[in-house]
Amino acid sequence: MVSTNEINAFFESFERLMLKLQEVDNWCVDLTQDISKQGLSLVGFVGEKETVIMRDIAEFLAVPFSTATGIVDKLVEINYLERFNSAEDRRIVLVKLGDKGHELNKLFITKKCELGELVLCQLNKEERKSFIQLMDKVKLGLMNGHSTVD
Q1: Counts of helices then strands in the chain (DSSP H, E)
Q2: Mean pLDDT of 105-133
Q3: Would you say residue 54 lies in a domain?
Q4: Residue 90's CATH number
């Protein structure tokens, strides 16, 4: 069982980290003036994968396919994303970064790396390894929809 004190200590640290993460998102969104946080997140997702299919975008955003299509349409219109048909199967629509998407993704990665450095430099090498392993364990537990409590 997790104590109230442990939960409070966790949230105090976690909320500070979340605020820092939001600062990175806000900085990128404010810089561009034409993209939402959801759009920024999608640019990061597509940039990480290089090319994705629309179904993957809908799953990533946790929205219906039609909503994902609308979001992609807007980002294609302002050159953050490009849409094209697969050479192997013309029915498959692929999405990749457009010119503005590449620029924004580079900035976003730079800012995330700066924040990662700020967080992880507080820890020694062994602590960083443990911290990352614990974060992965929590992430997997959240993705599987259950607690990681023994």
Answers
A1: 6, 3
A2: 92
A3: yes
A4: 1.10.10.10
